[in-house]
Amino acid sequence: MSNAFVSLTDLTLSYGQTVAVPDLNLDVLEGELIALLGPSGCGKTTTMRAIAGLLTPTSGRIVIDGLDVTRTPANKRGIGLVFQSYALFPHLSAFENVAFGLRLLKLPNAQVRARTEAGMATVGLTGFETRKPAEMSGGQQQRLALARSLVMEPKVLLLDEPLSNLDARLRLEMRNELQRVQKDTGITMVFVTHDQSEALALADRIVLMKDGKIEQLGTPAELYAKPATAFAADFMGFENIFRVEGSELVSHLGRLSVGYEAKVHMLAWRPSGVGVGTGPHTGRVISSSFAGGHREYVLNSPLGQIKADAPIETPEVPIGHEVAFDLPMATARSLAA
Ligand SMILES: Nc1ncnc2c1ncn2[C@@H]1O[C@H](COP(=O)(O)OP(=O)(O)OP(=O)(O)O)[C@@H](O)[C@H]1O
Ligand SMILES: [Mg+2]
User: Fold this and answer.
1) What's the burial of 235, exposed, middle or buried (CB within 10 Å: 0-12/13-18/19+)?
2) I want to staple 210 with a disulfide (CB 3.0 to 4.6 A). Which of 91, 114, 157, 215 is the partner?
C-alpha cells in the first residue's frame, strides 16, 4: 500500500522453538487508529513487542515511515508505549513523570516545561503537576502515562490494553479521551484489546486475530455487520451459530427444521435477531434477566441453548415455561466457514 506508515511484511515471531505469530502481513496508514482484537494468547502483545523493537523477528520486515527498522533498537524507532501497568515513577511528581523522557534528551529547561505543560493539558491534567501518582485516581494515572508518551512526539503510539485496569465509567471516559487525542495529534496508534466493544468504539480499522493469524480485517462497521467466519461472528456477538443441512439447522445436540433452505455452511444470529413470543419453534426458558431496554432469555431448544433478547414491553415469560421462538432468515448472518 502506498501510504502505509507501519508495514509488517511476512513477519514471523517466535519464542525459542514456539512460533507465536507466523507470517503476518499488515499495513497501518498514517494517522490511523488500528485495534488488534482477539482472545488471550492470539499474539497481540507479541506483535506489539515486535513493532516496538522489544522482540526480534525470526523472519520478515518492519518498515516505519519509510525506514526499515527490523534491526533498529527499540529506543531509536520513535515509538511510544503505553502498557496496562502504567509504570509511573512513584517518587516523582506528575509533572516530573511526564518530563522524564524530555530531560533524558537534555532539552533546555524552558522547552521541557512548555512541552510537559502542553502534554498534561492534552490529557486534561492541568493543575495536577505537583501530585504524586499515588495521590491520583486510576484514570488520572492512566492519562499521566499517556501524556508521558505523547510529549515524546512518537511517530507511532502502541497501547497494550491500557484501559483494562479501569472501572466501566473511567474506561468510557478514557476511550473518548484517547480518540480525541488521536484526532488532535494525528499520531498513528496501534491499540490492543480483547474487548470487542472497545475496539468497535475506538478503531478506524480492526484486526481480528486468532492463533497468531489475521482472521479478519476491516472497519468496525464491516466486522460488526459482516463477520466472515464463525470465529469472527462469535466475537462480534452472534451468539447463536449453527450448521446448515438442507432446510435444517444442526448443532452437536440436535437438529431443527426451519422451513427455508440456505445454501451456506452456517447461519448465525445475535440474541436481538432471535424472535421470542412468536415463531414456529418452542423452547423452555432456562434463564431470564433484565438488561435495561430488553430482557435476555436463554432458551432450551432441540439445538441446545438459544440466546434471545425480547423487548422489555413484552410480558416476561417465567423460568421453566415454554415459549415460541423464531430463527428468521432475515436476521441471520450467512457464514462460509
Ligand atoms: N515470553 C514468552 N515465552 C514463550 N512463549 C510466550 C512468551 N510470551 C508469549 N508467549 C506465547 O505466545 C503466544 C502469544 O502471546 P501474546 O502475549 O502475544 O498473547 P496476547 O494476544 O497478547 O494475549 P493476552 O490477551 O492474554 O495478553 C501465546 O501462546 C503465549 O503463550
Ligand atoms: Mg497481551
Assistant:
1) buried
2) 215
